[in-house]
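## tool: complex_structure
## caller: assistant
## args:
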Amino acid sequence: MTIEQTGSQIVIAATFFLIPTLGEMVTERSGILNLGIEGMVISGAAGSFAAAHITGNLWIGAFVGALVGGLLALIHAIVTVTFNRNQVVSGISLTILGTGLSSILGLGLIGVPIVPFGPIAIPGLSAIPIIGPIFFDKNMLVYFSYVMVPALWFILFKTRYGIMIRSVGENPMAAYTQGVDVVRIRYLSVIFGGMMAGLGGAYLTLAWIPMWVEGITTARGWIVIALVVVGLWHPVGAFVGSYIFGAFDVLRYAFQPLGVPTAFLNMLPSISTILFLVIWGVLLNLQKVKSIVGAPSSLCVPFETE
Amino acid sequence: MNLESFGTSLTRLKTMVERGFGYLKRKLWPFEITFRKRSSKLTFEQSIRTRILALLLGLAVVAVIFLAYGINPLVLYLDIFRVAFFTRYGIIETLSRFIPLLLVAIGLAIPFRAKIDNIGAEGQLIVGAIAATGVAFSLQHLPSGILIPIMFLAGFAAGALWALPIAIFRVKSQFKGSDVVISFLLFFPALYLVEYLVTGPWQDPAGWGFPQSPLIPESARIPLFPTTRVHLTIILAVGLTLLIHQYLVRTKDGITETKLGYEINVMGENPEAGEAMGMSFLKVAIITVLLSGGLAGLAGVSEVAGNPNLYRLRMEISTGLGFTGIAVAWLGGLNPIGVIVSSLFFAGLLAGGVEIQSAGLPFGVVNLFNGAILFFVLVTEFFLRHTAEWRLRRDN
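## result:
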């Protein structure tokens, strides 16, 4: 396999991690932990595939994927923001519910073919040797993920909305007394996270693996939650983390000729995630490191005005 | 057009959009809701009523989805109920699902009470099954009376060990949710370890290449009740549940009677107060998580050594009981007696689930029930502790 082919596969795998990770990052920045990523991704994948199959239009499919993710996230927002219930349990219910929803949305679609998003070469940039074919000869959703990284950085750190989101995640009471509508900011952030997760699912079934089978995500949604931590709640970090895990996803097959059983290769993504969390867990315990990373202080802390 | 006038028109556009949204909100949602905390604590009767309400609401929401797919939910629900509890096949199948489900759910209820979220029971169940199979083959010359207890001990130890990282991460880690993620991710190494074993070193040489181990020796099989396929582990499961009720949950005058049970409750309600009183969260976390993983491991043993459909190690050992157990534990109110009842309900749902398939839906749809019921348990609890006041908006 040439370096261009390997690089291409890494970009394609990494985009699937990157889109939901950016969404979850915004959700967590506003102080809400959504463990339901897996449920939203897989429902988005099934819903977008069904919509694209029925209408024959991939863009409608992608939109429906984002819609399904957003609606599921709305449930999480109602339960955790309005009713102040346990965010962890609500997220777990969302994962279970989304998994069930995906099997009913994907009813009768197993084995149905679809024409996926095709690559569009960007004139000029795609002519650069090596980098061009790897990064600039991809489908529109991959370009969307490139654009979202600087866009979210700008929104989070340079605009009023970004400051509101981050202050709500740091200290909701202080933000509330300053006149910020904490409930509204949290609702919007959670729904945005859900839409990105649903879009990530749409990317899976409409661009990467153009088909539907139950459990198509192979629980990659859980890795997204770890990636937010690995990326230190920063869009650029999320980008770097997603590409590292995309590389893991692709390169594990390089070990196959060495005689390592496939079962062990399949363990690699989850074990590397656990190792990352262990290393980060140790590092983040150091006060010096803690002060420079963006971990939202009020993550998972319910907010009540009375 | 200069930059300034462009800025003004942008601001104007923004006000217009905001006004539009405000108008829509007033028309579509003309209420103001305020929530107030109730002063009194939950009574036993109220908490049962909420659970039943949550269950019915969950079933109702799933019914709407079924209706959208042209399936009559009432007929389907009655069919599931009839098959699960009123046919000989169904009752036996329900009880055979009840055993591992109860072991998993009661195990999960313990750390949940201390707000430690172990969602990796599926992985702990699998390693328990692996340990039991290993013991069954390596010590097969031992008589049943010794071999089976050793298998249970090994399964408990393996499950507990698999769960241990959760406690450490829950207490020592600086970021929320990492313990939950790790508890889930540990499921994959366990699952692929089974795949490796049943396609490699433990593969049945006489099994035509099927990915499964040989049948475990007769001496390692848990005895069945005569003329049924229900094994004696049911006594162990119910007995352990009652023991846990006795030693960790039972209250007298509203306060848990044992020291450990009290510590678990305090750590769940108010960890800062607990630490100030000299309790160690790490100790509580380790004990609850070890018990939880160990009980899930026992469920794995009971599947390998008790389920006549298996009696061997296979990939199919993982049927999602570990995830269903989460909904079971919460529906049971994290109370052992409640968990027995909700285990029976979910076991019936799994046993009657064949009816879902014969209605033309994939079996994964069962997850809809789990998820929806879990959500409504969360929401209905809120309304027990709060009152809601609905008012029409004044500005309407």
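## assistant note: The two ends of chain B are 40 Å apart (CA to CA). Chain B has a mean pLDDT of 87. Handing back to user.
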